[in-house]
Structure formats: structure tokens, C-alpha cells
Request: fold
Amino acid sequence: MEVARWRVIGNYILAIPHLILLYVLGILAEIVAIVGWFAILFTGALPPGIGAFIAGVHRYQWRVITYVLFLRESYPSFTLPSGYADPGGDPAWLNIAPPQSYSRIAVLLRIIYAIPQLFFGIVLAIGLYVAWIIAFFAVLFTGRWPEGLRKFVVGVEFWGIRFSAWYFLLADPYPPFNIN
Reply:
């Protein structure tokens, strides 16, 4: 994939306002997820507005991260595309299929079930940083993402979004331990 060489540095600077907004939205999503957690425990369902908001935050996060990692050319918009289905119009699209039902015991124990995924994520994060450093210099000097590194980085980031969507109650089945 061809990338303008200045993007390896420029995208981080240009993304600062998005990263600040994403930080605030992340805090709000955590608060809303706690409310959703209680709602699922008592009613067995996630209120639609809560799910739509958290899905929108995840979609916005995906768009910002793909820009920061110079995986896309276009600057992401500041709109929060809420809802489970992606409204389109952005190269970094993310659809989230809402679960039909939740296992209340799985929701109750979600933080414990997350521990093995977190260890897996630590290993992936180490690999991601090594791959990103290599890709940074490859893009800086050649203007191209090495295809294998690009696939790995996208896979790791997609695993992160999948895990986060599960952890934030947007999915009920346990996420797989793979980056495909």
C-alpha cells in the first residue's frame, strides 16, 4: 500500500484533536457500559441507545486508529456515527452485529473472563509495537507499507476492537484468540 512519507509523522500531529475527543468519549462509553451492565443483569437486554452509543464510539475509535497508524489517507470526520450498522462514507468501516440475547452469568463474570484475553493482548501489543517501528521506517524511506506487517497491524487492531466490543457488551460470544 502506497503512503505519503510525511504521514508517518504528520498523522500523529493532525490526529491530536481526535485523540482528545476519543479519550473523552472513551470515559463516557465506560460509564454508559456500567449502566448497560446493570441493565443486562436485571432485564437481560442492553438498552438500544446504550448499545448504539458504545458502537459509535468503537467505530470512531477504529477510524481514528487507522488514520494514526497511517493505514488510510483521508482525515476522519469528527462525527460520531452511532448505531450498530456503519452508515458508510468512510474507508474504515465497522459493522457490529447486536447480540440477540445475553448470558447473564457471562455478563456478571465478564471481567474474570477478560483476563486471558488481556494477557493475549499484551503479547499482541509487544508484537504490534515492533511491527509498527519497522513499518514506520519502511514507510518513511520507501513510501510503502510492507504487506505482511500491514496485515499484522490491521489484524491486531481488529482483535482489539473485537475484544473491546465484547468487553463493552456489544457482543456476547467470547472473542477468539486470533488476529484474522
